[in-house]
Amino acid sequence: MKIRILKKNKDNLNVYREERGNISYEELEELLNTYDKVIIPSLDWENEGVRSLPKNFGNLEVEGDLNLRLNKLTSLPESFGNLKVEGNLQLSFNQLTSLPESFGNLKVGGSLYLGNNNLTSLPESFGNLKVGGYLNLSYNRLTSLPESFGNLKIKGNLDLGNNKLTSLPESFGNLKVGSSLYLDYNKLTLLPESFGNLKIGGNLYLTYNQLTSLPESFGNLEVKGNLGLTRNQLASLPESFGNIKVRGYLNLGHNQLASLPKSFGNTKVGGTLWLYGNPWIIDADFVNFCEKYKGELVLSDELEKAITTFLKRQKKLEEWEE
Fold it and tell me: Is the dihedral of CA 278, 190, 131, 77 positive or negative?
């Protein structure tokens, strides 16, 4: 094994650089037990059957990607938070049930993938993470998020889909997401009042939850992509909803909506507006709204027939009054 010795750094640590990438578990363990810090170009241990990491794994610095995907890790050493990864950190498809408290000290230059594990909670330090790309936490068993979560600034997508979240912390509205936010396929029944303060650079998906209402602040949102609210249990929308700005489509399909707030006509939607699958009350206000936005709406065949019937009856009534 060829190792180039570097001079001690400013912290008086013996730092060594391994010129090769993808060294074996045994070689890396020996290096970490011998030197204060080890720098390697990259490390790819995907699907290597790794069950645990050396206790001092955090003394590693990876100049490229660190790939630990498709292993059998159930936990990470406390030192893990000292890691510095300049590329992507891949931990998906393991069996992680928890993360060490130090995890929030991590610095990841690229994306961090934690999807398809068995995580039920995150450490309070999690909000201190520095992630330069995507953050993927999908397909876990998360039931809640720490209050610190709102401190995160994610430059790419934030994926929390396919968990078991029933609520979000009040700090959630402080989040800054450079691309899309996925909260679909959870068990959310309500959103914090701060939700309307969110900064989202892409799509917002809240589909397949159990939301019965939205906070009044929801109308403050500016969604630069699509807004998906389908397959919830929404019985009403806040009056502020008319202030919302959605550059893509707005999907309100398959809820329990019977009417729209008066402000709804002010809603700015750049794409299609989906209203199908709700128990709408077919009255003059609703029909006038549908006629106004005809061509931009997606309605079910049944709803279109009901509107047509209403218009025919209205016309007959007007003729009779004349």
Answer: negative
